[in-house]
Design a protein that fits this description.
Helix content: 25-40%
Shape: globular
Number of strands: 13
Strand content: 15-25%
Structural class: alpha/beta
Oligomer: single chain
Length: 461
């Protein structure tokens, strides 16, 4: 394996998909590296299958050369580094790369570093009908990159992690610039969470590379080991000609001592219901009521990156009907707990799960159409609107974005009576979320400010 960089130049002059935050103001920096090597693919060991219990047995099979990239974001000073590198499996569901992590208040305040890895073919080559991969986006910078198929992605991910690991070989080029790394977390969201589920069940027992796994918005199934050049998408995202990410298919193995945390919205909770696992010394499963796979806040937070890399972003004023419960503060809290779990052996608190009933099981809802149970953020516990993962149409966008319907002023007067009562109850709910450890204290004031702004348009007379 050979690493080169930091990479500069190209026709555009910047690394695709990188953070838009003012890194210098945070005491951070970003560098991009190219990684070249030979990766193996994995197949099932003779006489075994991808069993329900997740305890899969695989073996290395053929190999192929690859050249890919890794974007590293880290503190400027070693003294500001907490010793944890979050290795991100870049998401490629849209046909281009989305890092799916980092750049949050907890990331910067906590002193983490991350390495965003381009492990899959479509991130490099794009799709034939809409080539938005790195090679097409900036041929001058990325034209040398190549991945034969996603079958090699698991080993590519391991090899990239090797370059930022505690036991890394420190040659002339060290992506962590001599920093003392103590632990690696593997993180992926949505499609990338499905890749990591397979990595955890099949490859982690062989590599023992990661100290913890964080699966965000996980549909309850790992991707197959062998998919070739196909892009796996969420069910309903294509005409049936492309393979889809499995949903509710198997467990995450329970025979390793590696901590695993799964954080889902109401959307993925439905798919995962049949494969819910009990919390244990090495497993935590959180579900956020009222949230959906994609929220308006998530689209808004990605807009600066979309504007920079593509020259446009989605019009937020036309998307007001989509879910408006942000998962971001819970992701930060979960990251904070995962760090304490690995460094101090303090497990994240067990949380209530969303209530289901019926056959087939469906989310139990209250008089406002909100899910019962689960982690309850203040905008769900003290709502101004209905938010859920209930879809408004048959298309995949509708499935992912759920719904948002503002309550009438009359309904709000019935619920709260006055602006002051509403804000008082909202603050109580925000403080309760902190007490439950699903929101960090730093997020309370922004939540209160948002609630005050939102309630300002209500007619209380």
């Amino acid at each position: 394996m050979h690493v080169s960089g930091p990479v500069t130049g190209g026709s555009r002059g910047w690394a695709f998909g990188g953070p838009t935050a003012d890194l210098a103001a945070q005491g951070y920096r970003q560098d991009e590296y190219f990684v070249e090597g030979e990766a193996v693919r994995y197949g099932l060991a003779p006489g075994t299958t991808l069993d329900w219990d997740g305890q899969w047995k695989v073996r290395p099979m053929g190999s192929a050369p690859y050249t890919t990239r890794m974007v590293v974001v880290r503190p400027d000073e070693p003294a500001d580094f907490n010793g944890t590198v979050i290795v991100l499996w870049n998401n490629v569901s849209a046909g281009y790369e989305n890092f799916g992590g980092g750049d949050s208040a907890e990331f910067f305040a906590g002193g983490y570093a991350y390495a965003a890895v381009s492990a899959q073919r479509v991130g490099i080559h794009g799709t034939p009908e809409n080539p938005q991969g790195l090679r097409a986006w900036d041929p001058e910078r990325y034209g040398s990159l190549s991945i034969e198929s996603d079958d090699y992605s698991f080993d590519i991910f391991t090899q990239a992690a090797d370059l930022v690991a505690p036991d890394r070989a420190r040659g002339d080029i060290d992506p962590l610039d001599g920093f003392e790394v103590r632990r690696l977390f593997a993180q992926g969201a949505s499609q990338s969470a499905a890749r990591l589920a397979t990595y955890f069940n099949a490859v982690q027992p062989l590599s023992r590379r990661f100290d913890a796994f964080f699966l965000v918005m996980y549909f309850g199934g790992g991707t197959p080991l062998e998919v070739g050049a196909d892009v796996m998408t969420v069910q309903g995202a294509n005409d049936g000609t492309q393979p889809t990410i499995p949903e509710g298919l198997h467990l995450l193995r329970n025979d390793l001592e590696t901590p695993v945390m799964v954080l889902n919205t109401e959307c993925e909770a439905t798919s995962c219901y049949g494969v819910r696992q009990p919390d244990s010394d090495h497993f935590r499963y959180w579900e956020v009521a009222g949230a959906s796979h994609v929220s308006l806040q998530a689209i808004a937070s990605s807009a600066p990156r979309q504007e920079r890399d593509f020259g446009f972003s989605l019009p937020l004023d036309e998307l007001q009907g989509i879910n408006q419960v942000s998962l971001a503060p819970v992701v930060d809290a979960a990251t904070h707990h995962l760090q304490a779990w690995v460094t101090e052996d303090i497990g994240p608190p067990v949380q209530p799960r969303i209530e289901f009933a019926g056959d087939p099981p469906e989310v139990v809802r209250d008089e406002n159409g909100m899910a019962r149970g689960g982690i309850r953020l203040p905008e769900v516990e003290v709502p101004l609107a209905h938010n859920s993962a209930l879809r408004k149409g048959p298309d995949i966008f509708s499935r992912l974005v759920g719904s948002h319907e503002t309550f009438s002023s009359q309904r709000l007067r019935e619920l709260y009576g006055s602006r002051e009562t509403y804000l008082g109850r909202f603050e109580q709910a925000a403080r309760a979320a902190v007490t439950a450890s699903v929101v960090l204290p730093r997020d309370v004031d922004p939540m209160l400010a948002g609630a005050a702004a939102a309630v300002g348009e209500v007619d209380w007379s």
